Amino acid sequence: MLTVYSNTHHLRNATELVGGQIVPSYERPERAEFILEQVKCVKLGNIIKPAKFDLKPTLAIHDSAYITFLQTCWDEWLAQGNKGDLFPFIWPSRTMPSKRIPKHLDGKIGYYCLSSDTSINAGTWAAAKLSADVALTATQQLTTGNNSAFALCRPPGHHATNDAYGGYCFLNNVAISAQWLLDNGASRVSILDVDFHHGNGTQSIFYDRDDVQFLSLHGQPEQCFPHFSGYADERGEGAGLGYNFNYPLAPSTDYKTWQQALDQALEEIVNYSPDVLLVSLGVDTYENDPISSFKLQSDDFKTYGSKISSLSLPTVFILEGGYAVEEIGLNTVNVLSSFEKSHSCKGF
Ligand code: SP5
Ligand code: ZN
After folding, report:
1. Residue whose CA is closest, atom 16 of ligand 1?
2. Is 10 a catalytic residue?
3. What's the CA-to-centroid distance between 290 and ligand 1, angstroms?
């Protein structure tokens, strides 16, 4: 399987608010380096650099004023004389009436941000744009004779909505890729999100559409980030009703229970019969992940990698979360190499 990677991901290196202290974020550059090392170690396949895309595929998913905000907020922050990383401190809460977008950065950032775990600094926009290019380059491979590819994306994307960042995500890489496929010959795309956290951004982007099926296995929102979406009764709306599938699972879920949910999701994908499968691949379901609580073991990642391959679909894996940095390479590559071992399909 081909991997798309660029060392420009190092531009994303920011802090996070954890336990009342500002510390280096769990979503750190070493993550990608450990994965790259393991991709090389098992000889997964060629490693290529991302192609450069203009903003058109990004603007097909994201609000243009939101993109302008991401491009300019850091300079605005510096111009005010600030030095540290940029965090919001006020949000448009349920009790406040105004839906207007404030002009001052302090208000604007609250409008465009969904969680304070994600700070912004100098390289953030460039790295986020590049991460989307990594996903698009991997996705494009499906139109040039490859039946699978791995996008080694940093920062991740699945929490980013049309006009909000958070959960370490700025641009929704998997959503941008799905739309690109629909604009380049696909009629139906399924997105299977196996990250520990609910892919709220991806869900909301496609919630009223039937050309993208979204399925997510995740920690139940009563207990787990992002807390305000991911319930099983969120099934889509309008034309999208019946195309959104959530499998919320108790915090300490082990592989046996997790796989039962996966089997249900795979069955729904077969019923939908998509042209392409995109996998939001987060390995924060691992038993030793520092911010998550499922109990998957390293070998379980192999088991589910080959299960996904049994769909026999052209497939792109797009990296999301996973914070046990020492084991992130092994767990990620376990999914990819066992997928590849048993995968065969008709081309897209
Ligand atoms: C892409 C992705 O996986 N984003 C996840 C973002 C989660 N950030 C907030 C997590 C807060 C969880 N706090 C648990 C503390 C355990 N010591
Ligand atoms: Zn996650």
Report:
1. 291
2. no
3. 9
